[in-house]
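User: For documentation purposes, I need each entry recorded in a consistent format: the amino acid sequence on its own, followed directly by the corresponding structure tokens. There are two entries in this batch. Please keep commentary to a minimum and don't merge the entries.

Assistant: Recorded as requested. Entry 1:
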Amino acid sequence: MSDKFEQGMKVRRSVLGDAHVDRAEAKKTDFDEPFQTLITEGAWGTVWASDGISPRERSMLTLALLAALGNFEEIPMHIRASARTGASKQDVLEAFQHVAIYAGVPRANHALKLAKETYAEMEKE
């Protein structure tokens, strides 16, 4: 394992939680292992590991980009991560309001729907 991979796993676990990472690792196969390594080293070991901006700001940017690009599948995971990064519900709302203005109301509306559902699930847990 490279240093970037080890750093990436550390950051990934701190943001997403051990349970999530353990489930993802259990699903990894020989087929997608190179892709998983790329994500761990690139996204988590380089971008998320950078101290250029705070984890809170990274959460807000990530959620806004996911919504703006219509990558809704990962929004619940990153809403859950916001509890670890310090991004509040208000921060998330602000990010999605930016999405509404700069990327479109339908995408922001769907992202807000997913956020509300995820926050409700988190409150029950």
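Entry 2:
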Amino acid sequence: MVKHSEEGFLQLAMIRSVGLLVGAALATQLPLPGQKALGFLIGGACFQYLYFFLLSRSYRALDYGTAYPIARGVTPLMVATAALLFLDESLQPLQLTGILLVTCGIFALIMKELRVSRLGILYSVGTGVAITGYTTLGAAGVRSVGNPLSYVAWLEILSGGGIILAVLLTRPLKGLAFARANLWRSSLSGVLATSGFGIALWATSMMPVAAVAATREVSILFASLISVFLLNERFSLRRVFAALIIFCGIGTLAIA
């Protein structure tokens, strides 16, 4: 929806407003995360702000079917590295194999696009860096609190509240008009986005963060189908082949 909308930033703000409301509702029923989680919350929110900015820019510069797989495809590689460095999660042979497959798939995906929009590639890779940041900090944060949902709730409040505040300060009237015209579709997207993110963070409290990030990125395969059949972007056997390589790498990481 962000890619399809003429007002990507406002569309993103509408989606995140659902997260803000859900987070606020959960926060009233749960204990505070505690001082130990404060740094993780602030850091995670900052990485999410960076993610919002870079995501919207990458969608302007590239097709959805290219931008999304690059941003999501680099994430397992980066998260596995960050988990090794900061969370003391070692890599197994199967994980290394999966990382290699993901890297090869991404390289196959972007070879042609490098001659079209290098800036778009940089935005997409930067989006992957931002995802890695909030995923790694989120994993550390949910492990530092008694109730993982408490951390998720407050992260939604901080990230959603920040982007809503940005709209109110820059384009309040246009934002209100956009909200009225796109309420139901944006609300549904917000429910899906908030649910997916919350479940992924919750899962990192029970299993290695690299495996969670890898499993989550099976969406790359669906993104390739959406780009062709819903967004009418060009069909390319190279794109499909690259997406399948990435998918195989993600599957290998997930079972490692």
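Summary note for entry 2:
The chain has a mean pLDDT of 82.
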